[in-house]
Amino acid sequence: MEQNKLRWEVPIIIPSYEPDEKLPGLLRNLRDTGFQNIILVNDGSGEAYAHFFEEAKEVYGCVVLHHAVNQGKGRALKTAFNYCLREFCALPGVITADSDGQHSPECILACADELIAHPDCLILGCRCFEGKDVPARSEFGNKCTRIVMRYLTGITVSDTQTGLRGIPVSFMEELLMVKGERFEFETNMLLETKSRHIPILEVPIQTIYIEENKTSHFNPIKDSLKIYMIFGKFLFSSLSSSVVDLVLFSMLCFLMRDMRRGGITYITAATVFARILSALYNYLLNLKMVFQSDSPVKNTLPRYILLAVIQMSLSAFLVGRLYPLFGGAEVLVKIPVDILLFFLSFVIQREFVYANKR
User: Fold this and answer.
1) Using alpha carbons only, how large is the chain's radius of gyration in Å?
2) Which SS3 state, helix, strand or coil, does residue 136 take?
3) What is the rounded distance in angstroms from the CA atom of residue 350 to the CA atom of residue 215?
4) CB atoms within 10 A of CB 220
5) Quick count: other Cβ atoms within 10 Å of Cβ 198?
6) Cα separation, 4 vs 36, whole angstroms
7) In 3-state terms, what secondary structure has residue 292?
8) At what angle do helices 225-256 and 184-195 cross, to 10 degrees?
């Protein structure tokens, strides 16, 4: 199939909930531009909005899929993915766009061309968030999520919230099984690219905000919860490991109080055994729950041990060097040093210790 013809046949998926007059305008422009396959999902908008979807079908020739009740953007996208996988399986993928007019036909076409040229990549139509016309809520939400995502997941994208995306067929099949029924699904989609080693390509697009984006239902905190949960689980893993270490130490001290082997006291023995067992607990928790790595233990465990030794040595070195500068207050020096190493350890574990095999 020739690329010039294929670009017009790539399905355009538009999820819509309680649309206004901007929807018919978008559909008209898409048809006038030349797009042939427009898939519109009515996400339980109700009878008051039925005329928009009737017009889409009768006037603009759209395929309209219906939800009886509002199920969220994520579910609407999955409904459309399932339809497209059955009806357009020979095409390279689909383009998703918002129904509020933020994405022009020219930008949608640019993403379709990029998808055809790179059928194994996730294509993101990325806006520029500089300028007086960008609503403060959108600018803050994107910048905040972008920074947090880069640190917590290692994924670097300039527009985490964009609804204009080119999704290849192979990835679309996998996304049907990904959790998330509402806006969080788009965040989860980005997270899946890392675990499945799917490259992300960005396409610069126009930054269009109508009525300061008042109709958007996106919440940058609530709908990015999965990103924050990664660090939350890491924090839980670390704190619970400390509790396990303390409990084991107490139990072992009680059991070994009258025991002595050479120059080894029961306190030393209890400390070593408790630390080994709590470290094993921490390692397994990070492997299975926090980073959900599929790398074998023979690779991850030596890396974890190496990191633990380096982190402990670095902590001792830095505290030893710095505490004389602060009047000999060892504890006050150790707290910020260990906090810094804690955040650094998170990144190293994510990118090195538990990095998924390719």
Assistant:
1) 26
2) helix
3) 37
4) 19
5) 18
6) 13
7) coil
8) 60
Provide the pairing of β-strand 38-43 with 63-67: parallel
With b meaning 16 or more CB within 10 Å and e meaning fewer, what string describes 310-348? ebeeebeebbeebbeeeeeeeeebbeebeeebeeebbeb
For residue range 195-206, what is the model confidence (pLDDT) as tens digits?
A: 889 999 999 998
Can you tell me the distance from the alpha carbon of 127 to that of 351, in angstroms, rounded to the nearest whole number? 28
The domain made up of 3-220 has a fold known as Spore Coat Polysaccharide Biosynthesis Protein SpsA; Chain A (3.90.550)
| Adjacency order of strands within the sheet including 165-168 | 63-67, 38-43, 12-16, 93-96, 165-168, 122-126, 200-204
Three-state SS at 126: strand
User: Sorting pLDDT into bands at 50, 70 and 90, what band is 178?
Assistant: very high
* Helix 50-58 × helix 22-33 angle, to 10°: 10
Q: Which two tokens stand for residue 308?
A: 């633990």
Structure tokens at 156: 């670097």
Q: What are 4-27's pLDDT values in tens digits?
A: 789 999 999 999 999 999 999 999
Contact call for residues 188 and 122 (beta carbons, < 8 A): no
Query: How many residues make up the chain in this entry?
Result: 358
- Which residues lie across from 63 on neighbouring strands? 39
Question: What does the domain layout of the chain look like in residue ranges?
Answer: 3-220, 230-353
Please write the tens of the pLDDT for every residue from 212-225.
Answer: 455 555 555 665 67
Per the CB < 8 A criterion, the answer to whether 92 and 10 are in contact is yes
Residue type, position 164, single letter: L
Pair 312, 341: CB distance under 8 Å: no
Distance, CA of 333 to CA of 255 (rounded, Å): 34
Taking alpha carbons only, the member of 74, 87, 1 closest to residue 41 is 74
Tokens of 25: 């305008």
